[in-house]
Amino acid sequence: MSATRGYASRTRPRTLTDLTPPDLARRIAALCEEKLAADVAVLDMRGVCDYTDFFVVVTGANPRQTKAIHDEVHLVLKRDHGLLPRSIDGAREATWIVADYNDVVLHVFTPETRAFYRLEDLWNDVPKLEVAAGA
Predict the structure, then answer these.
(1) Residues sharing a CB contact under 8 Å with residue 72, sequence separation 6 or more, in sequence order
(2) Which phi and psi angles does 106 have, rounded to 5°?
(3) Torsions phi, psi of 60, nearest 5?
């Protein structure tokens, strides 16, 4: 990141926030765990992806829980950090909700949808970020 906190030297837009991209990824992962998300994974996409730095991939037991996980992340990031996603998709069906927070993209799956798309298998060569550190 450049000297101006929250803005990158890259051309994609960033949102001014008090969290660095790794801290934001950990914060989102921790919020998901608080809502009992399963199989929480944080994938470090820097170096392989130019539109985001991290993917947070989690599983909810059913569409109701995936929606609750997404809603909690949305509420807390807005309330505590003034951060809103650039876009959200899939919230109506709630089998795969994607929330794009610029530096971090949150993927909330139902078990069947996560098994079908196997996002971690697609990106199995990227480093994983420890969730607990600094969360």
Answers:
(1) 31, 32, 34, 35
(2) -95, 130
(3) -105, 155
Token duo for residue 8: 């990158």
What predicted TM-score, i.e. pTM, was given to this entire model?
0.84
pLDDT single digits (tens) 35-68: 999 999 999 999 999 999 999 999 999 999 999 9
| Cα end-to-end span (Å), the chain | 20
Going from the C-alpha of 128 to that of each of 92, 98, 105, 110, the distances in angstroms are 29, 19, 14, 21
Q: Within 10 A of 36 (CB to CB), how many other CB atoms are there?
A: 12
* H/E run at residue 70: helix 63-81
Give me the amino acid identity at 4.
T
DSSP for 96-122, please give it: EEEEE-SSEEEEEE-HHHHHHH-HHHH
Return the CATH number of the domain spanning residue range 21-122: 3.30.460.10
The type of residue at 45 is M
Pairing mode, strands 54-59 and 104-109: parallel
